[in-house]
Write a structure and sequence with these properties.
Rossmann fold; 2 domains; binds NADP nicotinamide-adenine-dinucleotide phosphate; single chain; 5-stranded parallel beta sheet; alpha/beta
């Protein structure tokens, strides 16, 4: 019977342990699910940032570390990690990211704030100032993986012209797909909205810098639920001040929590949300973990294995 060590953030134990037990039973996996164990007897490690392991080397028998988060930048470079690392692809997290991205794209697209924030007795009906239609507002999604493509499908269904940018060539019906460093400028040129859904790696850091922000259509919006390091903060603030960027909705930051004195908090053209775009949901994530343990025990390839060299 494999031993599965729950070594994720202890604050998550109550939320996850009952779902994991249920998911193992559903998957027909007889596993010993524990929160402490002799490292030499552990077969699988469930992990998250804030977890209870820093040195993975004593876990000599462990076949895999199963991360509860989609992003792996906090663990992928750990030199003691020799086990296979799997990231989380949780269908419910994907659903919630699609909802969050669609909501913020539509907010900026429709200019919703103008009416929501001005309940002041003035009837601002102006038939000459109608918003563009979605099909007139090109949106670019940087990072065209699980989350980027799911968001693209929703935006395409709303008629937005969508461009997706990835490391390797991709294809998605209804989207213009570009790849690699050579495709990036083209992906950004003239975009009226950019959504960042890239992982944080040395190659993606500052992908949106001053030069690339200047390629966007004037007044474009930037939505970042990916990682804070994807954007050059100073360049973004300058672009907001000059009007090159109309608004930035930021869910992730180089330093989290975002320090109270950070200029993003007070900037009138920045919306800060506290890394809440999409949570891993215990019930569905537990099934992904159980399926990977089942596969490991059956000698089948694991799902969502991280490419350590690519960093995600
Ligand atoms: P994924 O499936 O691995 O997709 C990542 C995408 O980024 C892929 O299309 C990949 O290209 C592309 N990419 C990576 N490096 C690149 C590079 N150097 N140049 C161009 N494209 C590159 O990951 P995911 O599940 O969609 O998640 C994406 C990120 O979202 C996570 O890493 C995490 O940082 C963030 N996230 C945030 C929240 C939140 O609540 N804010 C929640 C979940 C996830 P290929 O297709 O060629 O591999």
């Amino acid at each position: 019977m494999p031993t599965v060590l729950f070594a994720a953030d202890p604050a998550l134990r109550d939320a996850y342990l009952p779902h994991l037990a249920e998911a193992f039973a559903e998957a027909g996996v007889a596993a010993r699910l524990v929160c402490t164990a002799d490292p030499a007897e552990v077969d699988y490690i469930v992990f998250s940032p804030g977890g209870t392991i820093e040195d993975f080397s004593p876990f000599c028998r462990a076949r895999a570390v199963l991360n509860l988060w989609a992003g792996v930048e906090n663990i992928v470079g750990n030199p003691t990690l020799t086990q296979t690392l799997c990231r989380m692809v949780d269908p419910a997290m994907t659903e919630s990211m699609v909802e969050w991205v669609a909501a913020h794209v539509l907010r900026h697209h429709l200019g919703t704030d103008e009416h929501v924030l001005h309940q002041d007795g003035i009837w601002r009906h102006d038939a000459t100032r109608m918003p563009k239609l979605a099909r007139e507002r090109p949106i670019t999604i940087l990072g065209f993986g699980e989350l980027g493509q799911a968001c693209a499908r929703a935006l395409i269904a709303l008629n937005f012209p969508v461009t997706g940018w990835s490391r390797r060539p991709a294809s998605l019906p209804g989207a213009r797909c570009l790849a690699g460093p050579e495709g990036l400028d083209e992906a950004l040129r003239g975009a009226e909205g950019v959504v960042l859904l890239l992982p944080k790696t040395p190659q993606t850091e500052n992908v949106l810098d001053a030069r690339r922000l200047a390629l966007l259509a004037r007044g474009a919006f930037v939505i970042n639920p990916g990682r804070g390091a994807l954007i050059d903060d100073a360049a973004l603030l300058a672009a907001l001040d000059s009007g090159q960027v109309g608004h930035a909705t930021l869910d992730v930051f180089r330093q989290e929590p975002l320090p109270p004195g950070h200029p993003f908090w007070a900037h009138p053209k920045v919306t800060v949300t506290p890394h809440i775009a999409a949570f891993t949901r215990p019930a569905t994530a537990a099934r992904v973990i159980a399926e990977n343990v089942r596969r490991g025990e059956a000698g089948e390839p694991l799902l969502h294995v991280v490419d350590r060299r690519a960093g995600y």
